[in-house]
Amino acid sequence: MTAFFQSLGMSHDWAWFVATIASILLIALPVMITVAMMIYMDRKVWAAINLRRGPNVVGPFGLLQTFADAFKVILQETIIPSASNKGLFLIAPIVTFTVALLAWAVIPFNSGAVLADVNVGLLYIFAVSSLGVYGVVIAGWASNSKYPFFSAMRASAQMISYEVSIGFVIICVVLWAGTFNMNDIILAQKGHGLGIVNAYAFNLLLFPIWVVFFISSLAETARVPFDLTEAESELVAGYQTEYSSMSFALFWLGEYANILLMCFLNAILFFGGWLPPIDWEPLYLVPGWIWLFAKVFFMFFLFSWVMATVPRYRYDQLMRLGWKVFLPMSLIFVVVISGYLMATGHFV
Questions:
Q1: pLDDT score of 198
Q2: What is the percent of the chain with per-residue pLDDT over 90, rounded to a whole number?
Q3: Residue 236, exposed/middle/buried by CB under 10 A (0-12, 13-18, 19+)?
Q4: Which pLDDT does position 294 carry in this prediction?
């Protein structure tokens, strides 16, 4: 893209700058539109499972309902509690929303279609996603209200607990692929059925650890059954209780952007990303981004399905699952996968 802007008469520095801004917008704007459609899909799935209609009035089939809700929220008055730390109170949702968008820089949407194809892409995502806890803690503390503060403490403990398990799961993926580069991780999944299945749909060895990653993704994004940060009977509405208008909307958008990111990571790390589900030549005629989005929508359907059907955990059950079940299980799989790779000569 830099070469294109240079052909318009720009200097190399200005062409690079404009090309970078254009690339960021080409990712950020579709992500925001996709988030809006994901919220619509979320509500439709819940409605179908509960035998209701869901959004069906605003726009054709209710497709514009999310935009109408966003417009209503934006027009509301921004209320800042008089006893709050006003600076941090306003910064917290901006931190959450910004961090939610930063990770998209290294997500490959197709072969070579990535903003920054860096060698440590997966490590970058893990580092950036870990920063999301700061926005939550700042929001709860700056509100100067007891229940949002309790919720922020819960959220931080929950996110840290499950990030440990996710870290060991990522080690398993990196051991298998031999790289932190996101595109190379996808390519390493070619023909990975251990000689049993001719498919890129799933890795038979990594499939059990994907289950750990998927459930940890639910906990990391505070989705049901792990939405203890918003337990209505205990914490009113969580760390964002005191927020309104655009500040609340930024938390809302950041939350769904993180959910969408986790769906992409599930598809990229374990289900072949933009590769077709089966190694069959005619399937390669379909553009890779279509395969990727099909897998992402399936993952999001699983997120919605769980939310509509599984009851909420108690907090002690949540922490016990993370520390006493997933952490030992992920550690065991690090040993199993590294042992398999050593036995089959992958590390030679």
A1: 55
A2: 19
A3: middle
A4: 92
Cα–Cα distances in angstroms (integers) from residue 300 to residues 67, 203, 346, in the given order: 20, 20, 33
Q: Record the tokens describing residue 339, joined without a space.
A: 């042992």
In angstroms, the CA 17 to CA 23 distance is 10
Number of domains composing the chain: 1
Domain of 230 in residue numbering reads as: 76-343
Say how far apart CA 56 and CA 48 lie, in whole Å: 12
Residue at 53 is within a domain: no
Answer whether residue 94 is part of any domain. Answer: yes
Specify the range with the lowest mean pLDDT, choosing from 14-23, 245-254, 257-266, 301-310: 14-23
What integer pLDDT is reported at residue 348 of this predicted model?
Answer: 42
Residues 109-141: pLDDT tens digits? 888 788 888 888 899 998 888 888 888 889 889
Report if residue 238 sits inside a domain. yes
43 falls within a domain: no
67: Cα within 13 Å, side-chain hemisphere: 11
Burial state string for 14-45 with b = 16 or more CB within 10 A and e = fewer than 16: ebeebbeeebeeebeeebeebbbebbbbbbbb
CB atoms near residue 105 (< 10 Å): 19
Compute the distance between CA of residue 102 and CA of residue 157 in angstroms, rounded to an integer.
23
Q: Are 278 and 60 in contact (CB under 8 A)?
A: no
Q: Kindly report the backbone phi and psi dihedral angles of residue 226, in degrees, each rounded to the nearest multiple of 5, phi listed first.
A: -110, 30
- Picking from 219, 109, 102, 111, the residue whose alpha carbon sits closest to that of residue 155 is 219
Q: What average pLDDT does this structure show over 283-292?
A: 89
Ramachandran angles phi, psi of 110, nearest 5°: -165, 180
User: Distance between CA 234 and CA 317 in Å, rounded?
Assistant: 16
Q: What is the pTM of this model?
A: 0.89
> Do 333 and 75 contact (CB within 8 A), yes or no?
no
